[in-house]
Design a protein that fits this description.
By secondary structure, this protein is mostly helical. It is built from 43 helices and 2 strands. Helix content is about 65%, strand content about 0%. It has a two-stranded antiparallel ribbon. The longest helix is centred in the N-terminal third of the chain and has 38 residues, at about 45-85. About 50% of the residues are buried. Mean pLDDT is about 75; it is low at about 1-30, about 270-280, about 505-525, about 585-590, about 695-700 and about 980-1030.
Length: about 1050
């Protein structure tokens, strides 16, 4: 049987699945644990585990058991007091009694969830639980002194208020100490106290009632007084003796035992404390519990015991007396039914934990309840003639009632991920379940004795409904689990963010959601933090594809996948491929390629296979299935890692291809660290130096042939360009410095027209695909200069910074003017596909370079823009518009706009520029920044592009999350209509020491509010955006220029998803 689950939770265990601590550690090997902690957890001796579990049982469970026993007795002893003369003593009738009983449940129900939310904040739960126990003990003692119905109602209300926190708090405490497969037995022991309490309550009431007349108090008063004083003493003991957490239990736990208990709780969730800051109420978590449909199936299952059980608790002594027994005997005869309940509660729970399956051990007791109440419905009308049968039916009903609640709560605990959600869910289920107590208080009507058709009938109906609920929930979850099992990892990732996946609960097993949870960004190695995980296939390497497939993949790479990073020599790669296939095509002695050459071929397979899947999945709202390409890539990694001897040019090329694949498949962290190794190899080979000047890694001065010479240039400049873009995208410093480089750019000769001796004499002057690499490299030089000169962290004046911007503006225009026609002036749609892709890529790269150079000017005083500053701002916004229109057009045409790894960042840059400009424009009374209609058009276009980002892949969703915040701030700022005079740039950036510029007098008088149409639109946009914001606050007032880079890098924070 497949374990039932759904898209949010793993909710039940199956008979053929043995769960223990070791298996959980294996399932969660990456669950935020360091290698040392993981090794400690896995190697903890099994005999010590059993001994430790017993030690916990003896320290924690007995105290909780006695606390709940007292809770139960104090809750139901009003039923015992009733048959000892409570009603006539206070001048009450049956209706008054029902009111006094039911009033308890109003605060009891309402306070359970808030109580657990409060308890969650206590480092020492014993203080909180001890305090509420003492409080209701005092209330219980006062109950023995009440003089009329009103006073009884008041003390019952207070009793419900203070008792509300004990049971959910105890279950929460159990969930903090025990693993899910260990909880039901412990909860059952707790609930056994309730059954025992029913028996013990009758016995105790019988004994205490003998004190009738002592001190002038009736016997029923002594029941409340004695039991109340005992409760106060237990509350004090709770503060002193109740264990809080392993880390605070050094008196009875060794250091290793405390560490083991703490670490195994960590394995229950992929991320520690996923519910956010503990000092705030997380309404999202509360809503996730309240809106979860599965909770309501569990609620009906809970009502199948709470309605009949509460009704039976209050009515049992009266029912016994209705069978013809006197008061004392009626008290004593309540003991056997509750004893049956205690034994069954523990027995069913042991079986449920043993087989790790909840549903059967909930339904079987429910069937017993149905049988018991069916007999009572049939025979209670003539109870005098059916005393034995009815008494047996009461025992059968109690036998079934008490195992249900432990099973329901254990099922619920298994569903919850995170301490806050667990705390709220436990309390909410118990709280809603206690509505059954409110119902049960009224269904046994004295005038219907002894048949009690309402009481027995309602109990029977709720028990039958519970069976339907439990079986239905099991069936629905099995169906959902089957659907989940058929989902690929990419489909799951496309449907859910990583954080949402984490909130889906504690999962075990092999379904796609669990695979993702187990490899979530916060659970991965530091060299893969935040990355999309690889498929966990048993195969370690990929078999070489058939020759026809291999050639097709290689051709596809050179024709489609290699856009501007064209650093490989195609004919040479085909020779390596043929050697790898064992199919030499010429009489040239060669050995089969090993190491990096084979790695290059396999990485080409990986890139081509992934791109083909991108194309196939472009019509679906899912990420491409990358299982085949991942296997090719992992094979390439293995081959490259096994290379021996000297570093070669192919060593660098293999890793450069690996970086491209990792970036394309949203594995930025791994790409970053692989690129670090590539940099070291590049420097060791001296690729940054001209051949005539450089020395190799081993001091040799070699003269490479023309093909090798050109490949060295291509490889270096591809690495240089990647270094520039990686560092811009991630907001990090560059590694290559222009003053250390004298390598020349490659010649614009296509692969087929170069030989070892030089270009063919017949080399054509047609457009070359190498032009894309050459001009992209030149643009990367300008981009690097902009990062160095405009975003410098050094103290430079505003004039120096503006001078750098002017220089870069001229150089950028010169770059554009030097583009060959097929990359510049010719419309891309009129070009062949390979040249069209290069043209579009360079168009976007040029737009990004403009934004990168000019976006710092958006932080200027927007009311006083003039000259080069105003021109730069407008160029920045124009570049953003061009980039967004290009992306929007590609997305609308079904093109893979995200097929180039850096395009997501270009979209993010463009949209963020527009949003920040809009925020600034809210202060621009003169519309110097952006005119009204243009502003609205830009915002509409930006939101469309943001939508494209959120729909494409997991990497772009990171950008969309940050853009959501900027968009909300833009709308808030519009709504506020900020009119404060903004400070100038040097006020925001103390490190830049910029000098303020003059403010034209006429600008000070300029300004008007947004037009009525814009104002109404802004108001409409903000109907769902309200909150306690400072009306004069604009976060950009605190920005420095370097904060642009911080914005870029914030996207890659591991907590962003």
């Amino acid at each position: 049987m497949a374990r039932p689950s759904d898209e949010k939770m793993a909710v039940d265990e199956r008979p053929d699945y043995k769960e223990n601590v070791e298996s959980q550690v294996d399932e969660y090997t990456n669950a935020g644990l360091s290698p040392e902690d993981l090794a400690f957890l896995q190697n903890f001796p099994p005999e010590h585990k059993k001994k430790l579990l017993r030690k916990m049982d003896w320290r924690l469970v007995p105290l909780l058991l006695f606390l709940y026993l007292i809770t139960y007795i104090d809750k139901v002893n009003i039923g015992n007091a009733k048959i000892e003369g409570l009603l006539p003593s206070l001048g009450m009738d049956g209706t008054d009694y029902n009111v006094a009983v039911s009033i308890f449940f109003i605060p009891y129900i309402l306070a359970e969830v808030p109580s657990n939310m409060i308890l969650q904040h206590f480092k020492r739960p014993s203080y909180y639980l001890g305090a509420i126990v003492v409080a209701w003990g005092i209330v219980m003692t006062c109950t023995g002194t009440v003089q009329d119905f009103g006073e009884l109602v008041a003390v019952r209300f207070l009793l419900g208020l203070f008792e509300a926190g004990l049971f959910p708090g105890a279950i929460l405490l159990i969930s903090r100490w025990y693993m899910p497969n260990e909880t039901q037995t412990r909860i059952a022991l707790l609930y056994t106290a309730a059954a025992s309490g029913g028996a013990f309550s009758g016995l105790l009431a019988y004994a205490i009632a003998k004190m009738d007349g002592i001190g002038g108090y009736d016997g029923w008063r002594w029941i409340f007084i004695i039991e109340g004083l005992a409760t106060v003493l237990m509350g004090v003991l709770c503060v002193v003796a109740l264990p809080d957490s392993p880390s605070l239990s050094s008196r009875w736990l060794t250091e290793d035992e405390a560490r083991y208990l703490t670490l195994r709780q960590v394995t229950r969730a992929v991320k520690a404390d996923p519910d956010g800051p503990k000092h705030k109420i997380d309404w999202a978590v509360l809503w996730s519990v309240v809106s979860d449909w599965k909770v309501y199936f569990l609620l009906f299952a809970n009502w199948s015991q709470s309605v009949p059980n509460y009704a039976l608790k209050f009515a049992m002594p009266t029912i016994m007396r209705g069978m013809g027994y006197q008061s004392a005997n009626a008290q004593l005869l309540t003991i056997p039914p509750y004893t049956c309940g205690a034994l069954s509660s523990y027995g069913f729970s042991v079986l449920a934990d043993k087989y790790e399956w909840r549903m059967p051990f909930i339904v079987a007791p429910q069937v017993s309840v149905v049988i018991g109440y069916a007999i009572l419905c049939a025979k209670a009308g003539n109870i005098e003639d059916n005393i034995g049968v009815c008494y047996f039916a009461v025992c059968v009903a109690c036998f079934g009632l008490y195992p249900i609640l432990p099973g329901v709560n254990a099922w619920n605990i298994s569903n919850c991920s995170g301490p806050k959600k667990r705390a709220i869910s436990i309390a909410y289920l118990i709280c809603a379940g206690n509505i059954g107590g409110l119902i049960g208080s009224y269904i046994y009507i004295d005038s219907e004795a002894p048949s009690y058709p309402t009481g027995y009938g309602c109990s029977l109906a709720f028990a039958a409904t519970g069976i339907v609920a439990a079986v239905s929930l099991e069936g629905l979850l099995m169906r959902s689990n089957k659907i989940n099992a058929q989902m690929t990892e990419e489909e799951v990732r496309a449907k859910f963010s990583d954080e949402k996946l984490h909130q889906m609960g504690d999962r075990k097993g092999g379904d796609p959601v669990q695979r993702i949870l187990g490899d979530a960004p916060y659970a991965q190695k530091i060299t893969a933090e935040g990355d999309r995980p690889f498929h966990d296939d048993k195969a370690v390497t990929a078999a070489l594809p058939p020759a026809a497939v291999a050639h097709e993949l290689t051709s596809f790479y050179f024709d489609t996948c290699a856009v501007t990073y064209r650093f490989l020599h195609g004919p040479t790669v085909y020779l390596w491929l043929e050697d790898l296939l064992g199919m030499p095509s010429a009489d040239i002695p060669r050995q089969a390629p090993q190491g990096s050459k084979a790695a290059i071929v396999y990485t080409i397979f990986a890139i081509s296979a992934y791109r083909k899947e991108q194309i196939r999945s472009s019509s679906r709202a899912t990420l491409p299935e990358s299982r085949e390409s991942d296997l090719y890539f992992q094979t390439a990694e293995l081959l490259a890692s096994q290379e021996t001897g000297r570093v070669s040019l192919q060593s660098v090329q293999a890793r450069l291809l690996q970086v491209l694949y990792l970036l394309q498949t949203q594995r930025v962290t791994q790409a970053w660290y692989t690129f670090g190794a590539l940099l070291q190899m590049t420097s060791a080979l001296g690729l940054h130096r001209r051949e005539a000047r450089r020395r190799g890694a081993y001091g040799d001065k070699s003269s490479p042939d023309y093909i090798t010479s050109e490949c060295r240039k291509r490889t270096f400049w591809a690495a240089y360009t990647m270094d520039t873009y990686l560092c811009v995208v991630l907001g990090r410093p560059k590694h290559f410095h222009d003053e250390d480089i004298d390598q020349t750019l490659p010649e614009s000769v296509i692969d087929e027209e170069i030989t070892s001796d030089g270009p063919k004499s017949s080399a054509s002057e047609n457009d070359s695909l190498i032009d894309g690499l050459v001009h992209h490299s030149r643009l990367a030089q300008l981009l690097g200069a902009a990062t160095r000169d405009v975003y410098s962290v050094r103290r430079i004046s505003r004039q120096a910074r503006m001078a750098a911007v002017d220089v870069l503006r001229r150089q950028l225009r010169q770059w554009k003017d030097r583009l060959p026609p097929h990359l510049g002036t010719v419309r891309p749609s009129s070009l062949i596909p390979s040249l069209m892709r290069q043209s579009v890529a360079l168009k976007l790269a040029y737009a990004h370079a403009n934004m990168h150079i000019f976006r710092p000017l958006l932080l200027e005083n927007v009311n006083y823009l003039s000259g080069n500053v105003a021109s730069g701002v407008h160029e920045c916004l124009e570049a953003a518009r061009i980039a967004m229109e290009t992306i929007n057009g590609m997305a609308n045409n079904g093109s893979l706009f995200y097929s180039l790894w850096w395009i997501n960042y270009v979209v993010f840059c463009a949209v963020s520029v527009v949003y920040i400009a809009d925020i600034q424009a809210s202060k621009d009374n003169s519309n110097n920044l952006v005119a009204g209609n243009s502003r609205e058009d830009l915002m509409e276009l930006a939101e469309r592009c943001q939508h494209h980002l959120s729909d494409s892949n997991s990497s772009s969703r990171r950008y969309a999350i940050v853009l959501d915040e900027l968009l909300r701030e833009a709308k808030r700022t519009r709504n506020r209509g900020l009119q404060r005079v903004p400070n100038n740039l040097e006020q925001r950036e103390c490190s830049d020491s910029m000098q303020s510029h003059d403010k034209p007098a006429e600008s000070q008088a300029a300004g008007a509010n947004l037009g009525s149409q814009q104002a109404h639109q802004a108001q409409a946009d903000l109907l769902d955006l309200n909150g306690p914001f400072d009306e004069d606050y604009n976060f950009l007032d605190e920005w420095s220029i370097s904060d642009w880079l911080e914005l870029d890098s914030s996207v890659w924070d591991p907590q962003i998803l």
